[in-house]
Request: fold
Amino acid sequence: REAFLPIPAWYPAKFMQEMAGGKRIAAENFVLNKVGNTVGGFGSLKEDGTLRLMLYNHNLDRADSAETLNVTLQDLKCQYTCEAEQIDASTCFFKDWEAKSAHIQRAARDVDIATVGSMYDSDIQSILKAEDKAFWRSMKAKYAEQDQTVRYPLDVAEGTFTLTMPGHSVVMLTLTPNQ
Reply:
């Protein structure tokens, strides 16, 4: 059986599943639908006091424009420890795969591969020629072992923090109440 290779969208989907069952938290005062970028977020508060927030920076024009967010968490009932988990173009395997597979001749297709990057695995049968599928399987096994996110602590002690997000990125924050 082949290794499971999570595409970048898998990480936010998994995080949203972990948010389920909590009280929804609104994210307000984001500058939404700006020319070129959409920045936003949402969250949930679990019964045990764990707060999960998902923030995103989506570049509508496919540019790679970073955004700096000044985030204020209002009405915090206690002190929290925060872990951030980020995924963006520099953390996922697509660029590495493109570089290491440049020697492979793709089968003729009418699809621009740059716009369907997340379909590499599910659509591999029509992207690669038969003799190159073994190379893909060996690379896929290596990529499946890698965590494609970057984790780091974030200081939210004062309820306010600044976060710079690369273009096309998602940051998933888990705030755990200090006991």
The longest strand covers residues 37-45. The chain is about 20% helix and 30% strand.
